Automatic annotation (TrEMBL):
InterPro entries xrefs: Papain-like_cys_pep_sf, Peptidase_C19, Peptidase_C19_UCH, UBL_USP40, USP, USP_CS
Pfam (any one): UBL_USP40
Regions that span the bilayer: none
Name of the protein this chain belongs to: Ubiquitin specific peptidase 40
Organism: Cyprinus carpio (Common carp)
Length: 1252
């Protein structure tokens, strides 16, 4: 449908297509029609359904001619359509213009923009998907309304309207009750029907019986009687439109689908069995197919195109390529088959006696070995005796023995000969298999190839009009549209009695009004003029001429003598003219040119201007010679430039190389006699150009003495590990190879070294690799002095100014840098400005992971040895907001000893402290439980961060749990133990939405991992906060596991150990007091259900509901359980889960999708899985549909929360936009997921003025 979405529509009658990238193609005219001579229609985005219907109406000649008969006196003039007093019938006028354009304008495509504008489509209606059957009815209705009061007011009714009658016949008295209906098209069923004729039989032949409990009340009998209902066609229209009901609705799946099964429809058929009248002429019942609108896709979208029969034969039909190939292959196979059949017939007509007699008669000796006779038989007939005659006659020896009157066996039966009495029968030679019949066939095969069965008997052919594309199709292609995703959707038939006049055949201008013909002629003249102008402009090219007297040969290429001199002349020339014409024009421009003139294609390469192919043939065009827009031509004598012979061709294309030599300073010649080092790298660079066909030995001879080394770069210097680079010395065999063979390209570097230069410390030779170690600026480390904490500000500022750039390499030991200050250590700094652990002084720069060209801080403090660890540590539960301290300890120290030293450094006292790690998220992790293990055994490494946490570690195998209690806010004052200390009774926030409860800390519990949940509850009851609370037994307590300070899950199974319940050391739990005993099963879910207040955006207080999810975890099971709880039926309930973070509700549907048995068994739905993830404590909202029609679950608090989230998101996008400079609209326009949103369906409409 969206094939031509980006085509541009022109104004008025024409449409232009813009070209790109070629001189003069800014307004390229539309191309003329192709061989088929038909015009397609552009797709405006989603108008393929309109294009298919318009083409069908165009190729309905009677409709088209009736429309053309309406002149401006009846329809008005389009120029007056904006005048309020004028009544201009715009839609018929635009259809006339569009039809004349499609018939006569020499253009491949036409636009329907003006037609859709006349429909009143102003809201991008052309971009939407619509149904072509609906468009057919609406367009005909609009035409009927537009033609009111004209001679064409009955056009649609006369051509397309038919009449059917519905009859009910009483079986008792024979009374017939009938109702007459007018129809524009017949809508037939596709489901359960094999084809069109069966569907019509079911509609108009078969009767529906009223009997049993379904009786009919007869008006004459005045009682319920048996009756038969039937329908018949009373009036047949000239054009019969049939709509196929391809789209249906599956009530089991609650979704639409497309019928893609086989549905056969005939090319011609007789409607007589379906009509009420049987006395009409037979021609009145006969219809032929002339248009098939095809839909490709599904029920929610797709593409339309149409197969149309060319009734007036105005197009040029050629068999499709695959049909031509198939016909040639078929004819070839038929020819071979006929010859083979003739040969077989000629041989089969003779019995084996005559065949063998003929073989022996042709032998000069008249005698043949029996063993050779079978071979001679196969050579003649192509089939061995065993396959052709053995089954009937036996072996060949037995056959010869059975005919002694003909054959004579001699030499003990090894040879056979003919008896003298037998006349020799001759047989045609196998080399002459062509009989007279085959000779006749050979003459017949010389006839020109035709389309065979694809040729139409009446001369009318079929075409596929697919928006802008028009192709030829065959009748067999129509049969392919019987079924599948791409199948027939609408059928258009015409009466076979309607014959076209001879003057209409092959005449597209037949009955077209003169004023439209004149308009088309003017449009064609404009198109021809535009094409001629465009043809001239598109063939004009600009060529740059380079004159040889202004160039010289240098560095392997041509260069202009002076950049200020005008050495390039730009000329504009027609590329269709010959090379000789261009040469003559240059001669006329250069009056002073003497001698021969050669024109050579040139190209600017990095080394300069290079010459390629010389134009020698003056008779060929510039286009054929390869001269295009922007080409460079060098004008010279063809031999030399400025006295230097110039070689041309791709093989001599120059290569610009970077040549490096040692600088004079590096080699100890700093007296100015040598070449200076320009960039401080120790090497001098120069650019040299050489012909690609030159050998490497020639390059070495041009650069230096023959004994010098020529090297190619292998590895570049890196930032880590020093600035050494590797160079490979070219072997002697490479000196005979060309630069092109060595794959050298522009920019490649070559190093030229003298043998004596390899003795320096800069260059070292190992095998064929030269290592260059130059003191470049990239081989240093910046050392900064970090001021001590006790210094004055002036001293600190003075220390910061002390910076030193130290030359370094990857192999240099850090000890030499520490010699700057023996009482300091070297430390790197990360991106946040934090000092990293000191590096060990015995490591090299590379082993320490230090990158060159970076800074190191020289900080006061000792350097850790190889057996020491540098550790960070902080005090408290939030290490990111507490100042970090640093300590150096031996890795053999135990965890307990390390803890003691850290407490001493932090000036803390007490024995109730322990150490915890900090993970990669900078959050407190697991504690170091084994205090007697060494730091190395505890896997504490250099640079780790530890946290001092107050509290004694439980013994090994024990857990220390933080216990909170969930209490009602109203009743919290009745428990005095919960109000005495602010630190212990700090409110953590509401545990559940709207529950009126909060969590408060009540103490710690130390308990074994092997203890049961019941033991944990019993120990919790000993806490001071619960001693004065009435708790009869541990069964009246419910324990929740907290994750992120929120209730996560209920610990169930009183006899389960804490290890199996996956409780870790330091976990947080919350205890809740119950009013009755509770022992939850492993599959039980505790939900908080709150029913909605009818007519209000509020809920009654929530109630706890225990749901056995192990019995049925689907939504149907939850509905059944809650319906039983509240005394309702599941159909009268509506449930949803509350999402407090988003302040929204997720509806839980009671409907379960049914799956066909043929499909794979669907996995059972589980509310504990995606997308609901039901867990303990979730809030389930309920609506009683018997008394509450409001299905919106949102409360006022939810709406306020959603507004707050929207504002926060907008503020966040604004901050991101201001920080990055990007538009926030792009952020909001991103899709959040892969879901495919369908556009809402909009009803199709056409606006028509009032003409009554």
């Amino acid at each position: 449908m969206f094939g031509d979405l980006f085509e541009e529509d022109g104004d008025g009658f024409s449409s232009s297509t813009s070209g790109t990238g070629v001189k003069g193609r800014e307004c390229e005219p539309p191309p003329p029609r192709g061989k088929i001579r038909f015009c397609g229609i552009k797709n405006q985005g989603g108008t393929c359904y309109l294009n298919s219907l318009i083409q069908t109406l165009l190729f309905t000649p009677e409709f088209r001619e009736e429309l053309f008969c309406l002149g401006p006196d009846e329809l008005g003039c389009l120029a007056d359509k904006d005048k309020p007093e004028a009544k201009v019938r715009v839609i018929p006028l635009e259809l006339q213009r569009l039809f004349s354009h499609l018939l006569l304008v020499d253009e491949q495509t036409a636009s329907t923009k003006d037609l859709t504008d006349s429909f009143g489509w102003t809201n991008n209606e052309e971009m939407g998907q619509q149904d072509v059957q609906e468009l057919n009815r609406i367009l005909f209705s609009a035409l009927e309304s537009s033609l009111v009061g004209t001679t064409g007011s009955s056009l649609i009714h006369r051509l397309y309207h038919g009449m059917l009658v519905n009859q009910i016949t009483c079986k008792e008295c024979g009374n017939i009750s009938e109702r007459q209906e007018d129809f524009l098209d017949l809508t037939v069923s596709v489901r359960g029907v094999s084809g069109l004729e069966e569907a019509l039989w079911n509609m108009f032949v078969e009767e529906e019986m009223f009997e049993g409990n379904n009786l009919y009340r007869c008006s004459r009998c005045e009682q319920l009687v048996r009756a038969a209902k039937s329908a018949k066609l009373r009036k047949l229209p000239p054009f019969l439109t049939i709509s196929l009901l391809r789209f249906n609705f599956d009530f089991a799946k609650c979704e639409r689908y497309k019928e893609t099964g086989s549905y056969v429809f005939p090319l011609t058929f007789d409607l007589k069995p379906f009509c009420e009248q049987n006395n009409w002429p037979d021609s009145e019942y006969s219809y032929e197919l002339f248009s098939v609108i095809i839909h490709k896709g599904g029920c929610y979208g797709g593409h339309y195109h149409v197969y149309i029969k060319d009734i007036d034969q105005i197009g040029h039909w050629e068999a499709p390529e695959e049909v031509k190939v198939k016909l040639k292959t078929q004819k070839r196979e038929d020819k071979v088959g006929e010859r083979k059949k003739e040969n077989e017939n000629s041989v089969d007509a003779e019995d084996p006696l005559s065949v063998l007699t003929g073989i022996l008669a042709q032998e000069e000796s008249k005698c043949v070995l029996v063993d050779q006779l079978g071979q001679k038989l196969m050579n003649k007939t192509g089939t061995p005796w065993s396959k052709k005659y053995k089954k009937q006659y036996g072996t060949i020896s037995k056959f010869l023995q059975n005919h002694p009157e003909v054959f004579m066996l001699v030499s003990n039966g090894t040879r056979v000969a003919l008896k003298a009495a037998v006349p020799a029968t001759t047989d045609p030679s196998p080399t002459e298999p062509v009989s007279s019949a085959s000779a006749n066939n050979s003459t017949e095969n010389t006839e020109p190839e035709t389309a065979g069965d694809t040729e139409a008997t009446d001369g009318c052919h079929w075409f596929d009009l697919n928006d802008s594309t028009v192709t030829a199709v065959t009748v067999k292609d129509i049969e392919k549209q019987f079924q599948g995703k791409e199948s027939a959707y609408m059928l258009f038939y015409r009466k076979t009695a309607m014959k076209r006049p001879p003057e209409a055949i092959g005449n597209p201008a037949y009955r077209v009004p003169p004023h439209l013909v004149e308009m088309v002629q003017e449009e064609n003249a404009r198109l021809q003029q535009r094409r001629a102008e465009f043809d001239a402009s598109s063939n004009s090219i600009e060529v740059r001429l380079h004159l040889a007297p202004h160039y010289h040969w240098q560095n392997g290429a041509l260069h202009a003598l002076s950049p200020n001199e005008d050495s390039i002349i730009t000329v504009t020339f027609d590329r269709r003219r010959t090379v000789g014409d261009l040469r003559l024009a240059i001669y006329q421009m250069q009056d002073l040119w003497e001698g021969d003139m050669a024109l050579t294609l040139a190209k600017n390469v990095p080394a300069g201007l290079h010459l390629y192919d010389t134009l020698t043939d003056d008779q060929i065009s510039l286009y054929s010679a390869g001269v295009s827009n922007g080409s460079d031509l060098f004008v010279w004598n063809g031999r030399e430039v400025s006295g230097v012979a110039v070689k041309t061709g791709i093989e001599w294309e120059p290569v610009l190389l970077t040549v490096l030599r040692p600088s004079a300073e590096e080699m100890g010649c700093g007296d100015g006699s040598g070449v200076g080092d320009a960039d401080g790298s120790g090497l001098v660079r120069s650019m040299k150009g050489f012909a690609g066909g030159a050998t490497l030995g020639t390059v070495l001879e041009a650069l230096g003495p023959q004994e010098a080394f020529l090297c190619q770069e292998q590895s570049r210097p890196g930032a880590s590990g020093g600035g050494a680079s590797g160079w490979r010395v070219f072997p002697p065999l490479d000196m005979q190879r060309t630069l092109r063979e060595l794959s050298l390209k522009d920019g490649d570097a070559l190093l030229l070294l003298q043998p004596e230069e390899l003795d320096s410390s800069i260059f070292s030779l190992s095998g064929d690799i030269v290592t260059v170690t130059t003191p470049s600026d990239c081989r240093w480390l910046q050392v900064e002095f970090c001021p001590q904490s006790g210094m004055e500000e002036e001293e600190k500022e003075e220390q910061r100014k002390k910076r030193s750039k130290v030359s370094a390499s990857g192999n240099m030991c850090l000890f030499f840098i520490l010699c700057l200050d023996a009482e300091c250590c070297l430390r790197q700094m990360d991106r946040t400005g934090k000092l990293l652990p000191p590096v060990h002084e015995h490591l090299s720069v590379r082993d320490a992971g230090i990158r060159l060209m970076t800074s190191l801080c020289l900080c006061p403090g000792p350097v850790p040895t190889a057996t020491q660890l540098f550790l960070y540590f902080s005090v408290g539960l939030v290490p990111s907001v507490v100042q970090e301290l640093e300590i150096i300890v031996e890795e053999s120290l135990t965890v307990k000893e390390c803890l003691r030293e850290m407490l001493q450094m932090a000036k803390l006292e007490g024995a109730s402290w322990h150490l915890r790690r900090v993970d990669w998220c900078e959050e407190i992790g697991e504690p170091l439980t084994d205090e007697n293990a060494s730091l190395k055994e505890a896997k504490v490494i250099h640079g780790d961060t530890l946290v001092l946490v107050e509290g004694r570690l439980p013994p090994k195998g024990y857990l220390k749990l933080s216990v909170k209690m969930c209490i009602d806010v109203i009743d919290s004052s009745s428990v005095p133990e919960l109000n005495h200390t602010a630190e212990c009774q700090s409110t953590e926030g509401l545990t559940t939405e709207g529950s009126g409860s909060e969590m408060r800390f009540i103490g710690h519990v130390e308990i074994s991992e092997e203890a049961s949940l019941d033991d944990l509850k019993t120990q919790m009851m000993t806490l001071p906060a619960l001693q004065d609370v009435c708790v009869p037994s541990s069964a009246f307590l419910r324990v929740w596991l907290l994750e992120g300070k929120k209730l996560a899950r209920i610990l169930r199974g009183n006899q389960q150990t804490l290890r199996k319940l996956k409780l870790g050391n330091g976990a947080e739990v919350c205890v809740e007091r119950l009013m009755k005993e509770e022992d939850l099963g492993l599959k039980d879910l505790l939900l908080r259900v709150q029913m909605g207040v009818p007519g209000e955006k509020a809920y009654y207080p929530s109630e706890e509901f225990l749901w056995d999810a192990g019995r049925d975890s689907t939504s149907r099971g939850l509905y059944a359980a809650l319906a039983s709880q509240y005394g309702l039926t599941p159909d009268s309930l509506l449930l949803a889960k509350h999402l407090p973070e988003k302040h929204t509700w997720m509806p839980i549907s009671n409907w379960t999708q049914q799956v066909s048995k043929k499909k794979k068994k669907r996995k059972a739905e589980n509310l504990q899985a995606a997308p609901f993830y039901l867990k303990d404590g979730d809030i389930i909202g309920g609506k009683n549909l018997l008394i509450d029609n409001n299905k919106d679950f949102n409360t006022l608090e939810d709406e306020i929360g959603q507004q707050r989230l929207t504002m926060e998101e907008a503020n966040h996008n604004t901050r991101v936009c201001s920080a990055t400079g990007e538009c926030s609209q792009d952020i909001g326009s991103k899709k959040s997921g892969p879901t495919k949103n369908r556009k809402p369906e909009v009803a199709l409409s056409i606006n028509v003025g009032v003409f009554r």
